[in-house]
Amino acid sequence: MMSNDHCVQPVTSTFSENNWNILANCWHPVALSSEVSEKPIAATLLDVPLIIYRTSGGITVAKRNCPHRGADLSQGWLKDDQLVCAYHGLHYDSSGQCTLVPAEGHDAKVSLKLRLSTFQAAERYGLIWACLGSEPRFSLPDWNPLESSEYQVIELSTEWRTSAARHTENFLDIAHAAWIHADTFAPRDYPEIGKFDVEQTAEGLYYEIKTMFLAANTFEYKGAVEECLSEYTLTMPYSICLKVTSSLGVEYIFDVATPVSADRIRIFMLKARNFDKDKPVSDWLHFQEVVNEEDRKIVENQYPAYLPLDLSQEFHIRADIISIAYRRKLSELGIQQEGGY
Ligand code: FES
Ligand SMILES: [Fe+2]
């Protein structure tokens, strides 16, 4: 049984101490499973540099710098099921324990104190999730369609210069669709958003809305404008399942923003569809990349980059009941407005 550490906030962290401590006790994805194979890879979560490696003992997520002289372990490699540091060749097993100090010879006893700081890790839905704290506040989201053979799945990942909360709010927001996505799926002729209710769930929020969208998820096979049903399920703090039902069938978009730092995120997106499974996924992937780029151009230029939790700081329109509910949810969690950058 691997014993995990919990992390302390780096002195150079871009988060307030309050927010860092709350977010450290949540699950966040740090890599696509497909990225972690025969090489150790680097990631950053909440300003903490991490190393991720895979052995027969499973996935290990640890602090990136070697406890010997601080070398970057992502410059190392895997050999005989151990992580080898590139600087003096210290070997680490799946629990992070050093097993060999080559300069002292194979027979030398290795101190039990010579080990990496490892964190709770889980592999689910094609993602590697990590929690830097001892007690994850929310469960991993329930994204079962990704594990059903009924659906075809693609994965995307991109980095944005904004906060995780600004991205999450944008993903939950429906009123922007006819404006920034007019060239992809939401015709400008249907900007009006009907009334909807937001439900509180055990782990976040839920709402559903019918809108006039193009029944399309590629540029190549565009359908007609029709009434589509969008169902949003938020798992706090930054994971969303969007289920879109149209005449084509059901398409899910699972989206999660990882707070790399207070104003930098890595977005992981998984899409699942139960139609057009014989068509090339490259068209489907390309369409989503264009949609994401439409969002990125707006969201990276919102000011401030943090999400104002003081509700008087921005003006709200009727469709913002979801954004207001999300901001309140962050406040209930104890998150305080980040400022000063
Ligand atoms: S710094 Fe890693 S082995 Fe010396
Ligand atoms: Fe959007």
In DSSP terms (H or I, runs of 4 or more residues), the helix count works out at 5
CATH architectural category of the largest domain? Alpha-Beta Complex
Question: Which sequence of SSEs, written as H and E, runs from N to C?
Answer: HEEEEEEEEEEEHHEEEEEEHH
Number of strands: 17
CATH topology of the largest domain: Naphthalene 1,2-dioxygenase Alpha Subunit, Chain A, domain 1
Question: Could you tell me the radius of gyration in angstroms?
Answer: 22 Å
For the record, what is the CATH homologous superfamily label of the largest domain? Naphthalene 1,2-dioxygenase Alpha Subunit, Chain A, domain 1
Helix content: 10-25%
Number of domains: 2
Report the portion of residues in β strands. Answer: 25-35%
Largest sheet: 7 strands, antiparallel
Mass-distribution shape:
globular
Q: What is the residue-averaged pLDDT?
A: 95
**Unreliable segments of 5+ consecutive residues:** none
Q: Label the structural class.
A: alpha+beta
Small-molecule components bound: FE2/S2 (inorganic) cluster, fe (ii) ion
- Euclidean distance between termini CA atoms: 42 Å
The CATH C-level name of the largest domain is Alpha Beta
